[in-house]
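Worked example

This section walks through a single chain of length 141. The input is the sequence exactly as stored; nothing has been trimmed or padded.
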Amino acid sequence: MLYEVLKALHIVAVIAWMAGLLYLPRLFVYHADAPPGSPQSETFKVMERRLLRGIMNPAMILVWIFGLLLAWQGEWWHAGWWHLKFALVCILTYVHHLYGRWRKTFEADRNTRTATYYRWWNEVPTLLMIGIVFLVVLKPL
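Given that input, the structure is written out below as tokens.
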């Protein structure tokens, strides 16, 4: 029963984290086109900060906690699929921190990247998520 509860909590945290990882770069797309100091820019700053600090950061921490507990409960430490999943989650965590640095750049009105740049980065979490889901469901290695 503990395993199923951990899995449910992990899935809920993953959903919240992924929602933020998909939405934050979309906010960056719109923010990149807003003039610095404009009312729109200031609104995006608030939205980005609240999304990152209020949803994404706590969700990421819970994903890691519940995921590692699941790995311990399931004794997956030596499974090849789990090693690859772990690597992809580490990359996803790096992307999360990269988004956090970009948010600070917007906060300081120092963004120099285009909306197109952020559109491309909006796809990265999706690609990583697809790989992670297939590894978890198929356990190919």
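What to look for: Residues 43 and 107 are 11 Å apart (CA to CA).
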